[in-house]
């Protein structure tokens, strides 16, 4: 998207809020209307810097402008949604009064317009501040039991810690990731799964910020699959970098794990841990087309449990055909903040949580970080601890 188009879209979105809300605020008090227009103008100018700030030569100025731009993006989004809902409600009020004038003994339209005009910026600011607090805190641990038929004793209680969609980049740095790693390590998981979109930037920009991953601990190690943002950020460099940190990167392939509770177990259980490239990887590298069936090639026939890591939930139908028992995904962020959580289902079969697709369980993480605006409202971030239990 060109710079001019980006600024045009930003100005149009903010202008809509001004045209629909500011006149009624002016009627309440002239300073309120003027203050809204000034705030909207500043936000419209700053919002594109969330995308363009990295182009500025001064690192300090680039970081500050990027932060301001992304904060304005979150605020502007909420203001636009609230202003749109207000217009719909006012039109509905007018329509009902025309159709049933005698049955609506409610407040007059002018009073409603003034009250709701003040409500839009107040609610927009409160939602943005609340969403900022939710986004910047360390993700809470969400514990999920996954019932598996005929699960052997050796895998009863097997724990998988999943982190996803951290999006290291302009506003998420190494200390944020270190807090996540510390919390994951406190869980004592048997395996750590990183289901893509770890980074939003090149290896040169973020090499130091991923170093906390070296400290991840679990019984069988850490496994990573690519998300779409790795392909925007130089995927080949990131694959090499993560492997150098001791992370096992799965690219349409698998590893075999033999697990037992302790040395007294007479027979350890054999399980397959597979991973596929991002669902859209072939658009960037045809050789990396996502392929769950290929990821199962050569898997032992006596494997009692088959796990697939796939960034996007829409890999699930192919995972089902390939014979997997559980797919772990991310990508959706759970919508990240209202009302966008209601639109994710148009693009992905699952938005968040544990779902069943015939014999396949699919768990979709809401993500451990955030993308774009530092804002989470109605879709909190998570570190997921999945526990296998006998059905």
TrEMBL record:
Signal sequence bounds: none
Matching InterPro entries: Calcineurin-like_PHP, Metallo-depent_PP-like, Metallophosphoesterase_sf
Gene Ontology process terms (BP): lipid A biosynthetic process
Transmembrane segments: 34-53, 65-85, 116-133
CDD domains with a match to the protein in the record: MPP_YkuE_C
Domain Calcineurin-like phosphoesterase, first and last residues per copy: 159-334
MF terms (GO), sorted A to Z: metal ion binding; UDP-2,3-diacylglucosamine hydrolase activity
Domain of life: Bacteria
Keywords for this protein: Hydrolase, Membrane, Metal-binding, Transmembrane, Transmembrane helix
Pfam families: Metallophos
GO cellular component: membrane
Name under which the protein is recorded: Serine/threonine protein phosphatase
Lineage of the species this protein comes from: Bacteria, Pseudomonadati, Pseudomonadota, Betaproteobacteria, Burkholderiales
């Amino acid at each position: 998207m060109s710079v001019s188009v980006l600024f045009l879209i930003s100005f149009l979105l903010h202008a809509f809020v001004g045209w629909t809300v500011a006149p009624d605020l002016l009627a309440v008090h002239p300073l309120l209307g003027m203050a809204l227009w000034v705030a909207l103008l500043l936000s419209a100018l700053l919002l594109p810097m969330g995308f363009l700030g990295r182009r500025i030569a001064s690192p300090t100025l680039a970081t500050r402008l990027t932060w301001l731009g992304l904060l304005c993006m979150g605020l502007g989004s909420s203001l636009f949604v609230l202003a749109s809902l207000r217009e719909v409600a006012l039109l509905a009020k007018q329509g009902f009064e025309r159709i049933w004038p005698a049955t609506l003994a409610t407040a007059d339209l002018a009073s409603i317009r003034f009250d709701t005009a003040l409500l839009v910026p107040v609610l927009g600011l409160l939602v943005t501040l609340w969403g900022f607090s939710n986004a910047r805190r360390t993700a809470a641990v969400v514990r999920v039991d996954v019932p598996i038929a005929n699960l052997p004793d050796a895998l009863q209680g097997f724990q998988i810690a999943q982190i996803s969609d951290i999006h290291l980049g302009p506003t998420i740095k190494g200390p944020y990731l270190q807090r996540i790693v510390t919390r994951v390590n406190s869980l004592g998981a048997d395996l750590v799964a990183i289901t893509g979109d770890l980074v939003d930037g090149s290896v040169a920009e973020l090499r130091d910020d991923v170093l906390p991953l070296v400290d991840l601990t679990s019984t069988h190690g850490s496994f990573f699959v690519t998300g779409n943002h790795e392909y925007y950020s130089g995927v080949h460099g990131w694959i090499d970098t993560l492997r150098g940190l001791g992370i096992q990167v799965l690219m349409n392939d698998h590893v075999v794990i033999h697990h037992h509770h302790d040395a007294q177990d007479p027979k350890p259980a054999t399980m397959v841990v597979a991973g596929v490239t991002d669902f859209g990887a072939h658009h960037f590298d045809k050789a990396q087309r996502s392929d769950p069936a290929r990821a199962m090639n050569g898997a032992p026939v006596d494997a009692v449990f088959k796990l697939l890591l796939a960034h996007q939930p829409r890999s699930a139908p192919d995972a089902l055909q390939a014979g997997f028992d559980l797919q772990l995904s991310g990508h959706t962020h759970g919508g990240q903040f209202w009302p966008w959580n209601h639109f994710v289902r148009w693009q992905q079969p699952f938005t968040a949580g544990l779902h069943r697709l015939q014999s396949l369980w699919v768990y979709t993480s809401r993500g451990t970080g955030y993308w774009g605006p530092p804002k989470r409202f109605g879709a909190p971030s998570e570190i997921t601890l999945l526990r296998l239990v006998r059905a």
